[in-house]
Amino acid sequence: MNVMVTGGAGYIGSVLSRQLLKQGHVVTVYDNLSRGFRESVAPQARFVQGDILDRGYLADTLRAHKIDSVVHMAGLIAVGESVREPAYYYQQNVTGGLSLLDAMNDAGVKRILFSSTAAVYGEPQRVPIEETDEKNPTNPYGETKWTFEKALRWYGEAFGLHTACLRYFNAAGAADDAGERHEPETHLIPLILRAALGVAPAITVFGDDFPTRDGTCVRDYIHVLDLAHAHILALEALARGEKALVYNLGCGGEGYTVKEVIEVTKRVTGKDVPVVMGPRRAGDSAVLVAGSEKIKRELGWKPQRQDLGQIVESAWTFMRKHQFKTP
Ligand code: UFG
Fold first, then answer.
1. Residues 104/70, Cβ–Cβ less than 8 Å
2. What one-character DSSP code corresponds to residue 114?
């Protein structure tokens, strides 16, 4: 496959690009570097610095490199920021996505896989969450992802696109040579690891009055390499002619509370992590745990690294080796 990864300088895109390259595919990363890092781009990938709002440049890039499949990962991903700056989220996640679909139409590219999110469900009616469950986002981040999913469906029908939406639960962990790096960092595991390393003062727990087993939010953490593998399976399915795929991606089970993640991280790092209790963060759902039976059944996906200790260990190794360069 000849794949363009928008947002390929970001966390998940940098891991996916390397996995695609290892399997012999050709990868073009298209990224404006507003949130990603040039040095995160896979060394063997072609890099094009561009904005997804630039339809003309996108179409030129798609044509010039004879792209047959697009993985659309470029976008804004921070729940709290989205509540404060909804217009920015609509512009990047919705208008940017539509610009990409228009460019694909201009260039005759028919296959697209979209990075969606568990945040489309909002506060779920039941857990584990199934793909057909009600979508009721509790923040502009989830709302803009859901809006684009709906647009993708109608564009797909009108223009004969082959589409896949993968709704990620909480991506975590790292590959040997690529991993999570956000500035500023807002995600739980890298923030706890920073506190463990001493480069951040403490971890603040956002609320301990949720209706969960210890009062803190429950999330479903999935290793980024398992996530990447699901993308490759979905891209192969689109190449076989599948049309409108939608899958949840998580490990299921009981999930982990924020307090449990902190305990696992302390054990893995052998460090004491200073913890501060704080108020709830706007837009957070109490429990998000995936039902991922559909992708297991239909594409044969199976997560290989479900143990949270193993996930945190890989993130810890990556952070010390590549990000903060500490022993
Ligand atoms: N949390 C804290 N303290 C922090 C950071 C996070 O207590 O300093 C809590 C959050 O309140 C939440 C949990 O840790 O309960 C996880 O928070 P993250 O910010 O790491 O991730 P989210 O659960 O907010 O994930 C959401 C979507 C995902 C999406 C992700 C992208 O649900 O689908 O944002 O940023 F991929």
1. yes
2. E
pTM: 0.97
Q: How far apart are CA 204 and CA 208, in angstroms?
A: 11
- Report the alpha-carbon distance of residue 245 to residue 156 in Å, rounded: 11
Measured between alpha carbons, how far is 181 from 201 in angstroms, rounded to an integer? Answer: 18
Catalytic-role residue among 30, 141, 168, 221: 141
Of 89, 93, 139, 170, the one to substitute when testing ligand 1's pocket (max ligand atoms within 8 A of C-beta) is 170
- Maximum alpha-carbon separation in the chain: 56
How many CB atoms are closer than 10 A to CB 90? 17
Which residues, judged by CB distance below 6 Å to any ligand atom, belong to the binding site of ligand 1?
77-79, 117-119, 168-171, 186-188, 191, 203-206, 217, 219, 258, 281, 284, 288
Positive/negative CA dihedral, 104, 109, 115, 116: positive
pLDDT tens, 129-149?
999 999 999 999 999 999 999
Task: Encode 232-261: b = buried (16+ Cβ within 10 Å), e = exposed.
Answer: bbbbebbeeebeebbbbbbbbeebbbbbbb
Q: Is-contact 57 39, C-beta < 8 A?
A: no
How many C-beta neighbours within 10 Å does residue 183 have?
Answer: 6
- Which tens digit of pLDDT belongs to each residue from 156-193? 999 999 999 999 999 999 999 999 998 889 999 999 99
Q: Is 141 a catalytic residue?
A: yes
Specify whether the CB–CB gap between 249 and 197 falls below 8 A: no
| Residue 21 CA: distances (Å) to CA of 44, 91, 96 | 7, 31, 26
Q: How crowded is residue 214: how many other Cβ atoms within 10 Å of its Cβ?
A: 12
Query: In angstroms, rounded to a whole number, what is the distance separating the alpha carbons of residues 119 and 28?
Result: 28
